[in-house]
Automatic annotation (TrEMBL):
GO terms for biological process: cell wall organization; peptidoglycan biosynthetic process; proteolysis; regulation of cell shape. It catalyses: [GlcNAc-(1->4)-Mur2Ac(oyl-L-Ala-gamma-D-Glu-L-Lys-D-Ala-D-Ala)](n)-di-trans,octa-cis-undecaprenyl diphosphate + beta-D-GlcNAc-(1->4)-Mur2Ac(oyl-L-Ala-gamma-D-Glu-L-Lys-D-Ala-D-Ala)-di-trans,octa-cis-undecaprenyl diphosphate = [GlcNAc-(1->4)-Mur2Ac(oyl-L-Ala-gamma-D-Glu-L-Lys-D-Ala-D-Ala)](n+1)-di-trans,octa-cis-undecaprenyl diphosphate + di-trans,octa-cis-undecaprenyl diphosphate + H(+); Preferential cleavage: (Ac)2-L-Lys-D-Ala-|-D-Ala. Also transpeptidation of peptidyl-alanyl moieties that are N-acyl substituents of D-alanine. In the C-terminal section; belongs to the transpeptidase family. This is Penicillin-binding protein. Its main location: membrane. It comes from Salipaludibacillus keqinensis. The keyword Membrane applies. GO terms for cellular component: outer membrane-bounded periplasmic space; plasma membrane.
Amino acid sequence: MRILTGNLFILIFISIFTFLFIQTTKELSSAQSLHNVLDEAIELDEVTLTNNSTILDREGHIISDVYAGENRIQLPFSEIPTYVIEAFIAAEDHSFYEHPGFDMSGIARALFINIQSSSVEQGGSTVTQQLARNLYLNHSQTYERKLTELLYSYHLERVLSKQEIMEMYVNSIYFANGVYGIEAASQFYFSKSTSELSLAQIAFLSSIPNSPTLYNPLMNEEQTHERKEWMLTKMHEQRFINEKQFNAAMSEKISLKVVEKHDQFPDYVTYVFHELEQLVAKQEGYAQRLRAATSNEERIVIHDNLKKRVNELLTGGLIIETALNPHIQQHAVTTINASLGDAQIQGAASIIDHDQAEIVAITGGTDYQKFDFHRGYQAFRQPGSAFKPLLVYGPLFEETNLSNSSVIDAGPIKRGNYEPENFGNAVYEKVSIEEAFKNSYNTAAVRILDMVGIEPAFSYLNQFDFTQISAEDHILPAALGGLSHGVSVNELTQAYSVFSTRGIYRSPRAIREVSDLNGNVLYAWGSENKEIWSQTTVDQMKSLLSSVVSDGTGQPANIAGSSYVGGKTGTTNDFNDLWFVGSTERYTSGIWLGRDEPSSIYEYSQRNLHTHLWREIMTGLE
């Protein structure tokens, strides 16, 4: 009885609605009145369909598909194949171009079936009704929802063109397995774009949205084929295809070639997300607002807004071109995992093409998983003696006329309560600067910083990209890497690249440019160059760094046959951290070893694991 009452009610409503609609074609005043009512009663919120974003390597190959829940690649109407539109019209809505949002004859047929079965089995929905349901309503099988759907559909037809409705429909419908829209479906199931699909493949894909569970090709391929044949028959009956096309499509063999989501190189991709946030922050003013914030609460709000903005961009569809070298990245990851797999320590590396100022590889730790804590850029540790070239010796050559052969006092030094010691409590006298550097004498480094001046020395250091250096670090222990927070291996490697670029520093980046899906460049780092060291300073520093690996503390890092190898070791108190940062002719790279909870790794220092590992990584780059 309730079903019958509902059917009678909806018949009465449809009759009234039809009468009003017919009247709108006769009397403008009545039309305006009805439209005003609809305008007030129905608020069509702006709908923005999400889009996939992609991250590309240096050769333009996709390394990561970025989407949250909905795998969608939007197509403008002009790029939707005609067969796709015709397939949905033939199967779902053959009077699409004529009706005002609903099809009275279709609804009547559905009602007749429902009355016969005493249930709500069919809805007679047009494409417009389905779109209204997907975007603004729900899928409940009630007459209240059905009546609301009719009003929304009619209103949609008033504010959108038929092309806009079809475009939104084709891009919004669900194709099972987390896939939305025909283009994403084509790439997921057939590994190609819709423009490359055959008629049979289009009919196959267009079968899925009618019932994504029943016609899921990965679960019920036979039913999908049955629906495909039904759709081809409908297309033939409605003369969208001729007999020859129909027969060819019916006999064509369909072979799925499913492509799972691209999700490679988690270490590098995680860093790209971090750098994207930095890039947007710089170009849209968030970074400036963060610097100007006067409270931690204000900074949290600004940072939350920044994250929302980045997420908005990603869900809108971005193409992020990066400098990733897949070979180098894989080699670095494999080498670190193999070397540290049985050890109870962690390690991370950054590798930079210093000529291009690009980060070609970065690792986040052994067996790294995407978005885990990333030791390449999130772990801030004391750099030990690896800090000396940047804060001590570089400023020394810039501020004085001394050279590598000049003599410096390496004897004991005491300034107030600070009295640094050399490794093994060794005591030295006057030695050449080269001798002090390659053997990493602490007393000489502290004396040099004291001589140059803490503030002048930091004036050079502050031009690099260290994010955790603060005013409280402006003390003599900084000469030995004694910092309040520390540096990341990526920051330190970035800074070392200046020794291979004639003293001119350009911040190395992973992201080349960020474009929208139409190829318009939205974001790109500028090419700001900072002249930090003179050529004379660079020449002397490269010579010192080379002496470290030829006959100093970094000898295990030497690479036979290489035209240039130079670098610096770093060991912190109690052997909690091991560093080596250095360069060949083309690449600057750094490696850090340690434990997340700092503790001694003395045995690995004795084995020179850090320098051996650096050499192994670097010898596999070319």
